[in-house]
Automatic annotation (TrEMBL):
Protein's recorded name: Pectinesterase
UniProt GO BP: cell wall modification; pectin catabolic process
Source domain of life: Eukaryota
Gene3D superfamilies tied to this protein: Single-stranded right-handed beta-helix, Pectin lyase-like
Organism: Triticum aestivum
GO molecular function ontology, one term from the record: pectinesterase activity
InterPro entries, alphabetized: Pectin_lyas_fold (IPR012334), Pectin_lyase_fold/virulence (IPR011050), Pectinesterase_Asp_AS (IPR033131), Pectinesterase_cat (IPR000070)
Reaction(s) this enzyme catalyzes, per UniProt: [(1->4)-alpha-D-galacturonosyl methyl ester](n) + n H2O = [(1->4)-alpha-D-galacturonosyl](n) + n methanol + n H(+)
Entry annotated with the keyword Hydrolase: yes
This protein's record includes keyword Hydrolase: yes
UniProt pathway annotation: Glycan metabolism; pectin degradation; 2-dehydro-3-deoxy-D-gluconate from pectin: step 1/5
Amino acid sequence: MGCHGVVSLVALLLVLLLRWPALSSAWAPVSRTITVDKKGRGDFRSVQPAVDSVPDGNREWVKILVRAGHYKEKVTIPKEKCYILLQGEGQSTTEIYYDASNNGTVDDLHLLMRGGSAGAYASGTFESATFTVLADDFVARDIAFMNSHNGFDKRNVSQAVAALVGGDRSAFYGCAFTGFQDTLCDYTGRHYFRDCFIKGAVDFIFGYSQSIYDGCTVVSNVPMSHSRQPGWVTAHGRIGASSPGGLVFKGGEIGGTGRQYLGRAWNEYATVVFYHVNMSGVVIPQGWDGSKNVGPDTMFAEVGNTGPGSDMAMRVPWEKHLTDAEVKRFVDISFIDDGWLAKQP
């Protein structure tokens, strides 16, 4: 490399350091690492015992390093075990999977959120999840979560959650979520998903949360034989008009097979925004399903999207058109973040 090349490289490094000074200094330290290796070359052979080994009331970041492999188990991080970083070795090589399903209905979760009994719900949607995190302050990187229940027979599908995220201040980087119906239960709390892969067909991103999906790839796996019945990418709800909540998709893309509504209203306070997303032809012309629950407080919006599925000429008439200030409120990281992202490892 000549002198000119060295000078250019140094200049580039200086620009990067000036642009992201906080990221280089603000990451929280990890106090210890627990290794999971199904071949027996770690502290544990499966993930749940590693989670169990973290003490209740933990206040220091603990890394659970999951070595490459396919781990068939259901994993739960209870609310008492905060500050866990679940680190895989790549979403294509490190996977937690299971095949449980729900015999109830998606409204079991709705009932619980409205203050109803959790009895029936306990054996339903919640319990079908392959991976459940209820603790605050959680991070996952480079790992996949799958529910394989509807993987082969899609004639009589049932709810089968790959991951349920129910704590506050959770972030997922480079993770994959694969299922068919109800893949990702984005339950409650503030969540950040970056460069993630999410595959499903029916209500496959659903919940009451306040989340940003940054540069994520959303893939429909509706079989071509089912193409007359569209699926739903999202099914969102909020507790009330003054409650926080909303699913915001920034960048990334929607693709796959079959046909998809961008979303349906789980209740009249549903809030979903697609911003600068590349949409393939799987998105149907009307965009949103207004068959029920849509009301004056329903907030479905699209801004600056591209691709054949982004044509808004035939969109439902009640889709919201946001002002510049409203757009900024949703797409700015402050929609979910008051400083907690920079305090993660």
